[in-house]
Design goal:
By secondary structure, this protein is of the alpha/beta class. Helix content is 43%, strand content 16%. The chain is built from 13 helices and 7 strands. α6 links the parallel β4 and β5.
Length: 368
């Protein structure tokens, strides 16, 4: 077996533009936060003093889902401070497809690249995890991250009855809860150190909301339970081993609103002591755009063709990492194709109630 299966370093979004093309919902989440982002920038004292204004998108994937937002934010800063050089840094894990980021940003794809239209702008990339420091002290003016910091830095143990913490119980769930708490405090502590005094931070992240809803687990067919059932069936049928089933766990933790707020409101927490303050927090549910389309066109086969790629775009590497490295690479790829084909068949035959509704916390912070 692969001893590194399902650690955070193994997770990556599909490259070559696949992620942005297949994740319409993630872009809708970001675009819907534009009023909060504009408000956060308005509250900052953005003076036209000639100093560098540094912005970052942390956990950017291919940069396509945030490209409209980033372009608007940078243009807004440019209007307020014409003389200031602007830097835009995209960060993700080292295996990320940063080449596609630059293609998107520089207008070399069908996406509205903003870099050619903004003067005195410098675009960079960092292959450093947001669980670590990315910038020096007091070097970042405005930080942003969407649908990313639910990933935990390491897998704290097995989840023997499920592939995700939403199905975990007892001590196994407690271990993921503690890992999620420690990682969240570390992430916020890193950002607090990096932000300039008066700097802003907007984080949009998967969560469990006040009604207990989470990604793909709002109403109707539960996505993560389906992930688990189909993977377990492959083990029971002998296509994969039970050891491979048990090795497949999403390295994620979905925090509730209290867990998200705690480091920013507890005076004894190092995050609070570092000066990071919570300005706004709310939860929102964005309906699955593929389900909404299906409700209009009624074609179950088309629904499956459109919906399955968005699942694969972010989950495929988790299932792949669970497979034994003793299997030839081609065999592992065939097993993954079979798995998602099975999910597609399930959607075609049972389209009602399918979908991946997005459930996020929308958080706005500043550094005192």
């Amino acid at each position: 077996m692969n001893d590194k299966a399902n650690t955070a370093s193994d997770i990556r979004m599909k490259g070559s533009g696949y992620y942005s093309l297949a994740t319409t919902g993630a872009k809708i989440v970001i675009d819907s936060a534009m009023p909060l982002i504009r408000g956060a920038l308005d509250r900052m004292d953005i003076r036209d003093d000639g100093s560098v204004f540094a912005m970052a998108d942390m956990g950017c994937a291919d940069g396509g889902t945030s490209i409209d937002m980033v372009g608007q934010a940078l243009r807004y800063v440019r209007e307020k401070a014409p003389s200031r050089p602007l830097t835009m840094t995209y960060t993700d894990l080292p295996r990320n497809d940063f080449s596609q980021v630059f293609h998107n940003v520089h207008g070399l794809t069908d996406l509205p690249g903003y870099a050619p239209d903004i003067d005195n702008l410098y675009v960079f990339a960092s292959g450093t995890s947001f669980h670590q420091r990315i910038f020096p002290d007091n070097a970042l003016n405005f930080g942003f991250s969407a649908t990313a910091s639910h990933y935990i830095s390491e897998r704290p143990g097995p989840i023997t009855n499920h592939v995700h913490m939403v199905g975990a119980e007892g001590a196994e769930l407690a271990a993921y809860t503690e890992q999620g708490r420690a990682d969240w405090e570390r992430i916020l502590g890193c950002r607090a150190a990096e932000l300039v005094p008066g700097g802003g931070l907007v984080l949009l992240n998967f969560c469990r909301d006040e009604k207990g809803r989470y990604l793909g687990g709002t109403e109707g067919v539960n996505m993560f339970h389906t992930f688990d059932r189909l993977w377990r069936e492959m083990a029971e049928d002998g296509a994969i081993t039970m050891a491979e089933y048990e090795a497949t766990v999403f390295p994620q933790y979905y925090r509730d609103i209290d867990e998200c707020s705690a480091p920013l409101t507890d005076p004894n927490c190092p995050v609070h002591k570092a000066g990071l303050r919570l300005d706004h927090i709310e939860t929102k549910v964005i309906d699955c755009p593929y389900r909404l389309d299906y409700e209009q066109h009624g074609d179950a086969a088309k629904f499956a063709r459109d919906y399955i790629p968005t699942l694969r775009s972010w989950s495929e590497s988790v299932f792949f990492a669970g497979l034994s490295e003793d299997r030839p690479l081609e065999e592992r790829a065939e097993l993954i194709d079979h798995y998602f084909d099975s999910y597609g068949t399930f959607v075609r035959e049972n389209p009602t109630g399918q979908g991946m509704d997005y459930v996020h916390t929308y958080m706005v912070m500043h550094k005192e």
